[in-house]
Amino acid sequence: MNDMTVRKGLDGVYADETEVSKVMPEINSLTYKGYPVQDLAEKCCFEEVAYLLWNGELPNEGQLEEFKKSERKYRELPEDLIKSIKLYPNYAHPMDSVRTGVSFLGMEDRRVWDSDNATNRDKALQLFARIPTIIAADYRCRKGLEIIAPKKDLSFAENFFHMCFGEVPSEEMVRAFDVSLILYAEHGFNASTFTSRVITSTMSDLNSAVVGAISALKGPLHGGANEQVMHMLEEVGEPSKAKEWMLTALKEKRKIMGFGHRVYRKGDSRVPTMKKYADGLGELTGQTKWKEIADELEKTMVDEKNIYPNLDFPAGPAYYLMGFDIDMFTPIFVMARITGWSAHIIEQTENNRIIRPLCVYKGPKERKVTALKERS
Ligand code: COA
Predict the structure, then answer these.
(1) Which residues of the chain are under the pLDDT cut of 50?
(2) Which of 19, 91, 292, 347 is the most exposed place for a label (fewest CB within 10 A)?
(3) Which atom of ligand 1 is nearest to the CA of 190?
């Protein structure tokens, strides 16, 4: 094979096969292991979806109970990590904190070089259980508050609220949070998942692959967009200013956060479900202003550019209405995507070949090296 066509950004390139999820832009659909994501969001809890991504089937009641028990057992952080979180600078972005926490856990794990299926699944389960504890502990430390220990009698979503705020909000709010985690859990060969597969392909370890994935997710063109969406809504400020704001931004050729997608061209399959829950939160909290601004921005963007919102567009304001600081939005995405990343890391490990593409050289022609003396 000697095709030197460059596909900038690997646009349209099939890099491997996967059994984890299928993105079908032509029918605006996304399935995890064959199940439409919007149905999973409406009928399952996040723990069921995590089980599905790792085991290929939805759990029965007994299997779910067992799975929940094993996750809850791992929620506590090692004392060394808690000490280290207390030393993180309080100006650090929480994505850097969670990346450092995951790296710390990998460093402390004596099984670091073991990547057999059972060990990788156990490492993934540990990260699934502990990433929320890292994010919440870091949040509390940055605010100068006491760290709140996880509780074993709370669900994954409830426990996160408890560790951040010391209380669990209404069922409706917890449900909206759980739905967001399900929608964020997995999405094919996106930039962070692909990063995790590249790292895994060198036979590096699971935690290292997740550290790389978090680093990729942090960027505003990927997961970081959910934070930028909220900054944008705040910048717009009022529904009456939204249209004008968008027209000016487009004239200035600004990138509008929360819009566009490499794969979806006619809308993101996850948006209608997330929007429904975000709008519900607006009603619940009596803050409908963000929905009004968002609707006007969306209408103007679609009319002017035919570019549709992606999941980050409704997820950003939803997290804001739940009471989270804006810089926690992308770390929450990590809490969800750890499930998809680890499913891909395990899949890559089971059928591995190092990922190593080519590039077309455009630099100077080959030339002679002259000695330093001759160059001066
Ligand atoms: N705001 C303004 N213009 C946008 C845009 C956006 N959010 N998304 C795409 N476009 C424009 C591009 O600038 C490009 O215009 P051009 O042909 O004049 O250069 C055109 O639409 C086609 O872009 P496309 O090829 O679809 O973009 P991509 O595949 O390279 O990038 C994203 C995809 C997601 C990175 C891009 O849409 C983006 O930056 N979105 C904002 C960040 C975001 O929300 N990221 C989360 C993704 S889930």
Answers:
(1) none
(2) 91
(3) 48
